[in-house]
Specification:
The complex is a heterotrimer of chains A (about 280), B (about 550) and C (about 325).
Chain A lengths: L1 H4 L5 H19 L34 H7 L1 H29 L3 H13 L3 H12 L3 H28 L2 H8 L4 H37 L11 H8 L8 H27 L15
Helix pairs in contact in A: 2-4, 2-11, 4-5, 4-7, 4-9, 5-7, 6-7, 7-9, 8-9, 9-10, 9-11, 10-11
Chain B lengths: L40 H4 L7 H4 L13 E6 L16 H10 L4 E3 L5 E3 L2 E6 L5 E6 L13 H11 L20 E4 L2 E5 L35 E7 L3 E6 L13 E6 L3 H9 L5 E2 L4 H10 L3 E15 L9 H10 L2 H8 L4 E3 L22 H10 L6 E6 L6 H13 L4 E6 L2 H4 L11 E6 L4 H8 L14 H12 L3 H18 L2 E13 L3 E2 L8 H5 L5 E2 L2
Parallel strand pairs in B: 1-10, 1-11, 14-15
Antiparallel strand pairs in B: 2-3, 4-5, 5-7, 6-7, 8-9, 9-10, 11-17, 12-16, 12-17, 13-17, 18-19
Helix pairs in contact in B: 7-9, 8-10, 13-14
Chain C lengths: L9 H35 L5 H6 L5 H10 L6 H13 L7 H5 L7 H36 L4 H15 L2 H15 L20 H31 L1 H8 L4 H31 L1 H6 L5 H10 L3 H29 L8
Helix pairs in contact in C: 1-14, 6-7, 6-9, 6-11, 7-9, 8-9, 9-11, 11-14
The chains are: A mainly alpha (about 280), B alpha+beta (about 550), C mainly alpha (about 325).
Chain lengths: ~280, ~550, ~325
């Protein structure tokens, strides 16, 4: 048990977790502290920060601080759903391909290659132009974009683990493939998968923001950090806080997740950071 | 007289969509019949209504300096940009057309018309036939003389179904019997009486091309600039016409039209001197730069109507009380202040403020939540829920929709917003003319044009699906009435019915808002179009 | 992972590699074929088409049908597909649908995209030129100083950079270098026919944006791979044997770290090709990205399909080259599975 929480003892891991907890807390509970309704214009658009409106107002005159407190849930949920779905697909494909290594592997990987042959944003453009805007389309689209990359990484990790002693022993014991995968392979590929997941989650958020930028994303008047960034971006010279505040939250989340992910990976045994004398403290 | 609260709104088309759908969005202004239009004369009055920071006088100060290249940036249309002025709909296409070609009648800054290629439009007694007297001695860019045959050819070309943008303007003309009486006189018989045919030929989709022009790859016109290069979606260049019939103009040697889709990029290009003029300046930036003065903000009042509309054939808007309630829910001053940063005047649900025959006597609608609630109750529609489809196709659309949804809550009405991509919004094969509650923009050159195109029984763009035979008769009576006073009376009746029962909520007449480098002089605010109605022939670059 | 490749007779070493290359080429061809079908079908089901776009508000179903017939869009899909693919394989990229709808007899796609392709390639290559050494260098530094301040600084800065959407990075850079300092041009408008290299200052901010947006992934991968290797036994053995640190670094660690890094770098290059859409839009750079966005919006299928196919070909080639490089670097993979 202690092994699992060992990552907390490293300094960067602790910092990472703190940041993540902070951002998630803001996302979940922030709305109860919001001074104004996030959808109602309170004063002139793009006003600078003042004692009433701590972060100023956005392009419609709504309080940025209140929208910030409301805007976390949507973007985190969407990105988590999309990334999660991507992992579901990607891991299934990657595990099967890496483990079987026989005829299925090339077929699966060539299909993955085909998917990777599309510029992701172009794919989303066409998808949304065709299927219409909406949360479901966005989530599925982003998941489909992430899945091939995930499957490649999972496959590589699975390949490596599959040749290890304990896995071969399990096979020799006569265990069924499914059991071997779940009990022997899966836990041992979690480290690289976890490290990768941090950045992936960030990419999901970025893709969503980029789609909003191109005018195809989320609907108004949603309070959502990614939407706030793209809505107010053209006014960055006039009132930068409307853009920088939500961008800073997303950046914090990214840094926190990745620091945590690295720490977890370290504690699970894969040496992503060398165990020099100093690292025991870090 | 400058009016800092009425800069022009941009009619930009969003990044993702360009060409589409604005169909016959007319930017022209009213052609009047024989008289003056009372108008925006107050605000425009020949002078500029541009903003404070030293823009008013400076744009026209000094004597013109000849030479140089004027570079203007617009939202582009990608490969859909076209030189065919009978098919074009976007500001960038308009900018090219209005500098390559000439109209039969020009529109002045006070929305009166004046002679262009035509000197006179003479109607017979019952306005069923016109005789157009043309200006002599005008040459095309290739040296040929402009005459009656070109007019006839142009009108017939406009009527071809592929040239959908120009078809409506000649729909009332008996094209078969067009006749050239001599080189400078054309006889134009009509299909129904029209007291103001001239108004049709102000708008850029009706300007004159050469007899025999077919594919527009190297367009030849009579305009102030001659065609040089064109790369759709990127840039086009034009050279000064040394034989232009307005002698002395243009002043600059070359005109360059640059496509820059992103609003920020366009503004930065202006600020860094890579272009000299930008069309469609976002209103928030306009406000900020009026204060700093590093660029000239050009603002012009215009009859450009921005509206919500309700389909009178789809529930719950079939009930006139629901429509009236919706009109009373809108808080128009708030919409103007927030959605377009104050760059517009308050609308009153009928289109064409400032144009001739606009009914100024109708009381200005204001928000009245109590009355709205009561009407909804009578109609059995308390706690109504509707979906409003919006699109970023015009700046201010999404903002206004968002604000209206907020305002509606006070009356117990829930408006759910659905944002659709610009390419479907005005596409009749997709969503256009099928939406129950949506937004639209009409910059009509005359109210006659708007009513014919949007509300008459054969209207091609009948957004509110209005069908009323008696009203239709009244409309055509007004169009054909030659006596001014009677015409005004009839038009008032036409408009009052729309005001009370129609499906349009016209919340503002938005201004044109553009940006100029401080070096550019000669471009004055003009109600008919952006960048001073594209009158680049008047522009010159100070040292 | 711990064995060094044993030297083999030259001819026995060649055939597994050739076989691998042969297999991959075949696989690439199949991938591209499947991709072409997907591209074609995917774009064909888009609602609306070039005909309705050109007709604008006048796009009543009747008018659209008439124009479609003129554009030969009423032929069965399979015929259109084979015509398109056949042409593509011969180097004919087809006609722009919008051009045809506007009444032009021919509107060759290549003429439309030749300048943008050149411009995007130049931007991508310049970025790659900086990205590869920067990724390797910064990743190596982070790995060598792992756990110490330099490592943390690099990690956090690169994480912060990729946490921001490109258009925010771009806007921030413009804010600093143009609005505040006024030393660099804020937009990169290149007149048609002119090379982007004729005015290199315009390229600085777009390249910087792309770099900031993409470096982190490469740095982290290089770092991770190197850190692992630096610990490996044979490296320790080399150190104990007295080989200098730098020799150890370059000979063993870097080489083994390169393998996964190559894949990430290849992915980054792929992203550069298709993903510069945002950066090109922000800086008004006349490249392929912005062309594609407007083409999709205009339903210009002729352009979208051919360009998507072109990009797919480049992607697949990049993958192939990346896999070959990995093969060269990691001899163990040359053994059959």
């Amino acid at each position: 048990m202690t092994g699992r929480l060992r990552f907390m003892r490293s300094f960067s891991g602790a910092v990472g977790v703190t940041i993540v907890v902070f951002v998630v807390a803001v996302a979940i509970f922030g709305r109860y502290f919001a001074p104004y309704d996030p959808n109602v214009p309170v004063t002139a658009p793009l006003s600078p920060p003042s004692s009433h409106y701590w972060l100023g107002t956005d392009f419609l005159g709504r309080d940025v601080f209140s929208r910030l407190l409301y805007g976390g849930r949507s973007v985190i949920t969407l990105a988590a759903l999309a990334t999660g779905l991507g992992y579901l697909i990607g891991m299934s494909v990657g595990l099967v391909a890496g483990f079987s290594r026989s005829r299925i592997d090339p077929v699966l990987m060539r299909s993955v290659d085909v998917m990777l042959a599309f510029p992701p944003l172009l794919f989303l453009l066409v998808l949304i132009s065709g299927a219409g805007t909406g949360v479901q389309v966005l989530v599925i689209g982003v998941a489909v974009i992430q899945a091939p990359g995930i499957s490649r990484i999972v496959r590589t990790a699975t390949l490596e683990v599959s040749v290890r002693g304990y896995v071969e022993a399990a096979i020799a014991r006569g265990e069924r493939s499914y059991a071997v995968i779940v009990r022997e392979v899966l836990p041992n590929i979690m480290a690289p998968v976890l490290v990768d997941s941090g950045l992936r989650f960030t990419y999901s958020i970025l893709i969503i923001a980029s789609v909003n930028f191109l005018g195809l994303g989320l609907q108004p008047p949603a309070s959502d950090w990614a939407l706030m960034i793209s809505d107010n971006r053209q006014y960055i010279a006039i009132q930068a806080w409307a853009v920088l505040a939500p961008a800073a939250m997303i950046a914090l989340l990214t840094i926190g997740i990745n620091l945590t992910g690295d720490a977890i990976a370290r504690s699970l045994g894969r040496s992503y950071v060398p165990k020099t004398a100093r690292s025991a403290v870090i | 007289m400058s009016d800092p609260h009425n800069p022009r709104p941009e009619t930009g088309i969003e990044l993702f969509d360009h060409r589409i759908s604005r169909g016959t969005l007319l930017r022209g202004a009213a052609g009047t019949m024989l008289g003056m239009s009372p108008l925006l004369a107050a605000a425009c009055g020949g002078g500029s209504s541009s903003s404070t920071a030293g823009t008013g006088a400076s744009t026209s100060a000094g004597t013109p300096v000849k030479g140089g290249t004027l570079r203007a940036g617009f939202v582009g249309g990608g490969t859909a940009e076209t030189l065919n002025l009978y098919q074009g709909v976007t500001p960038i296409d308009e900018s090219r057309a209005q500098n390559l070609f000439d109209p039969l009648l020009v529109v002045n800054p006070d929305l009166t018309t004046g002679p262009g290629l035509a000197l006179e439009f003479n109607a017979n007694a019952d306005a069923t036939e016109y005789e157009i007297k043309l200006r002599p001695g005008v040459e095309f860019h290739n040296g040929k003389t402009f005459g009656a045959e070109d007019v006839i050819y142009s009108m017939r070309l406009m009527a071809k179904s592929a040239n959908f943008a120009s078809v409506p303007f000649v729909a009332g003309i008996n094209l078969k019997d067009l006749k050239a009486i001599n080189a400078t006189t054309v006889k134009v018989p009509l299909l129904y009486p029209d007291a103001d045919l001239g108004a049709n030929f102000v708008y850029w989709n009706t300007w004159m091309v050469q007899n025999g022009e077919t594919d527009f790859t190297k367009p030849v016109g009579t305009g102030p600039f001659m065609f040089d290069t064109f790369k759709a979606g990127t840039q086009s260049t034009f050279k000064r016409n040394p034989n232009y019939w307005q002698t002395g103009k243009p002043y600059v040697d070359e005109l360059l039209i640059q496509s820059i889709d992103d609003n920020n990029a366009r503004l930065e290009a202006l600020q860094s001197g890579q272009i000299d003029a930008m069309a469609q300046l976002p209103t928030a930036d306009a406000k900020a730069h009026q204060a700093t003065g590093d660029i000239t903000v050009l603002v012009a009042k215009s009859p450009q109507a921005m509206m919500f509309y309700m389909d009178t054939t789809q529930a719950p808007f079939t009930d006139v009380r629901v429509r009236q309630a919706m009109k009373l829910i809108a808080d128009r001053p708030a919409l103007v202040a927030s959605a377009i940063n104050g760059f517009g005047s308050i609308g009153n649900d009928i289109v064409g403020k400032g144009l001739p025959f606009y009914d100024n006597s109708l009381p200005q609608r204001v928000q009245d939540i109590a009355q709205a609630k009561s009407l909804l109750k009578q109609a059995g529609q308390e706690n109504l829920t509707v979906t409003l489809q919006t699109s970023p196709i015009f700046p201010g659309f999404v903002e206004a929709a968002t604000l209206l949804a907020q305002q509606a809550k006070a009356a117990g009405v829930t408006i759910n917003l659905k944002q659709v991509p610009p390419s479907s919004y005005y596409n009749p094969s997709a969503l256009y003319l099928k939406m129950a509650f949506a937004e639209t923009q009409w910059p009509p050159p005359s109210i006659k044009f708007f009513y014919l195109q949007a509300l008459s029984s054969k209207a091609p763009y009948n957004e509110t699906h209005w069908k009323n035979a008696a009203w239709n008769d009244l409309l055509f009576k007004a169009i054909g009435e030659t006596d001014q006073a009677t015409a005004q009376q009839t038009w008032n009746q036409v408009q009052e019915i729309q005001y009370n029962q129609g499906g349009y909520i016209n919340w503002t007449n938005a201004d044109w808002v553009d940006g100029l480098s401080t070096k550019v002089k000669g471009l004055e605010p003009h109600p008919a179009g952006v960048l001073g109605n594209y009158l680049f022939m008047n522009a010159w670059l100070s040292a | 992972m711990t064995t060094v490749a044993e030297p083999r007779a030259a001819d026995r070493e060649v055939s597994p590699v050739l076989a691998f290359v042969g297999r991959r080429l075949l696989g690439a061809a199949v991938s591209l074929l499947v991709a072409s079908v997907l591209i074609f079908i995917g774009t064909s089901v888009l609602p609306g088409n070039a005909a309705s776009v050109v007709l604008g508000r006048g796009a009543t179903p009747a008018a659209v049908q008439k124009l479609e017939k003129q554009m030969h869009l009423n032929k069965p899909l399979t015929t259109q597909y084979t015509n398109w693919l056949g042409g593509f394989v011969h180097g004919d990229l087809g006609d722009s649908s919008i051009g045809l709808a506007q009444g032009q007899k021919h509107a060759p796609v290549w003429a439309l995209i030749s300048d943008p392709v050149k411009n995007s390639l130049i931007l991508a290559l310049i970025t790659a030129l900086f990205m590869i050494p920067l990724s390797l260098g910064l990743g190596a530094i982070a790995a060598v100083y792992a756990g110490r301040p330099a490592d943390h600084a690099i990690s956090i800065m690169s994480l912060a950079a990729i946490a921001l959407p490109e258009f925010v990075i771009g806007s921030l850079l413009v804010g600093v270098f143009f609005v505040w300092l006024d030393v660099l041009p804020p937009v990169a408008i290149i007149p048609p026919g002119q090379s982007p290299l004729s005015d290199p200052t315009k390229l600085i901010l777009p390249v910087a944006t792309l770099l900031l947006a993409s470096l982190a992934a490469g740095i982290r991968m290089v770092r991770a791979g190197m850190v692992e290797t630096l610990q490996a036994e044979y490296v320790m053995a080399a150190r104990l044997n007295g080989l200098s640190e730098r020799w150890v670094l370059w000979r063993y660690a870097m080489r083994n770290a390169l393998a996964p890094s190559v894949q990430v770098l290849a992915q980054n290059l792929q992203w550069l090709i298709g993903g510069i859409i945002i950066t090109e839009t922000v800086f008004a750079y006349p490249g392929l990205g912005s062309l594609l966005v407007t083409a999709v919006g205009n339903r210009d299928l002729g352009v979208v399909q051919s360009v998507a196919m072109l990009i797919a070909v480049v992607y697949v080639m990049l993958n192939l080259v990346a896999d070959l490089i990995v093969l060269l670097l990691v001899p163990k993979l040359r053994e059959p599975a």
